[in-house]
Amino acid sequence: MKILVCISNVPDTTTKINFTDDHKSFVSSGVTYIINPYDEIALTRALEIAEVNAGSTVTVIHVGDAASEPTIRKALAIGATDAVRVNANARDAYFVAMQIVNYAKDQGYDLILTGRESIDYNGSQVASMIGELLNIPSVSIVKSLTLEGNIATLEREIEGGKEVISCPLPLVASATEGMAEPRIAGMRGIMSARTKTLLVIEPTETPTLQSITNYDKPAPRSHVKLVNADDVKGLVNLLSQEAKVI
């Protein structure tokens, strides 16, 4: 079985976010980057599937410049067979999806996995775009994925319950919490990652469909008033006179 896992290079969740003075660009200096957490879940599930299907391979693909290679090497250390880097900065979700599709369309992948979204832009668009562009099924925000022969069974949470979908391969699925527990790379994996293949390819020409005009931070939180638990009258007065319904 051939599995492709799409990974993003995102700022660590503890990173302090700053933008340039003109609010046009993200300030990346001093930022620690990691594999997008949802993509790590997808990668782990891919490895679990490969381990019970002899001869399987797991390839990771990333659209980004050379600075993202440490993140790709981490994916290799976790257990991916090999990796592909499309040598371009991601412009938008369509650009990323097109680069992945242009590589994957002739490779014969049985399963393509992504995270449900990247934690920096939270777009949740790439997986469904890949499915549409490759003309294969795509299922988003999947909590469970099992395979029996050429049929995948996928479970999703929906309003008030869950949805179970049966789908033939090949397909695209985006992973969320519950699909797998992310792995930590061991020393052997870290050492072997140095010798695994990392193929760098140039991007294909793709139209720009959207662009970011500016970035901004959320408004600072307003001050709060603390009320003693026994001061019921004071609380009622504040709620009736000062509280605002947003």
Question: Summary?
Answer:
By secondary structure, this protein is α/β, with parallel strands linked by helices.
Identify the strand order in the major beta sheet.
9-8-7-10-6-1-4-5-11
Proportion in β-strands: 25-35%
Main beta sheet: 9 strands, mixed
Oligomer: single chain
What does this structure look like?
With 246 residues, this protein is α/β, with parallel strands linked by helices. The protein has a single domain, classed as Rossmann fold (3-Layer(aba) Sandwich). It has six helices and eleven strands. The strands form two sheets. Strands 9-8-7-10-6-1-4-5-11 form a nine-stranded mixed sheet, with helices on both faces. A two-stranded antiparallel sheet has the order 2-3. Strand 7 and strand 8 form a beta hairpin. Helix 2 packs across helix 5 and helix 3 crosses helix 4. The protein starts with a strand and ends in a 5-residue tail after the last helix. The mean pLDDT is 92.
Q: Could you name the key traits of this structure?
A:
alpha/beta, Rossmann fold, nine-stranded mixed beta sheet, two-stranded antiparallel sheet, 6 helices, 11 strands, about 25% helix, about 25% strand
SSE arrangement:
Blueprint: E1 2-6, E2 9-11, E3 33-35, H1 37-51, E4 57-63, H2 69-78, E5 82-86, H3 93-104, E6 111-115, H4 126-134, E7 138-148, E8 151-158, E9 161-168, E10 171-175, H5 187-193, E11 198-201, H6 232-241
Parallel strand pairs: 1-4, 1-6, 4-5, 5-11, 6-10, 7-10
Antiparallel strand pairs: 2-3, 7-8, 8-9
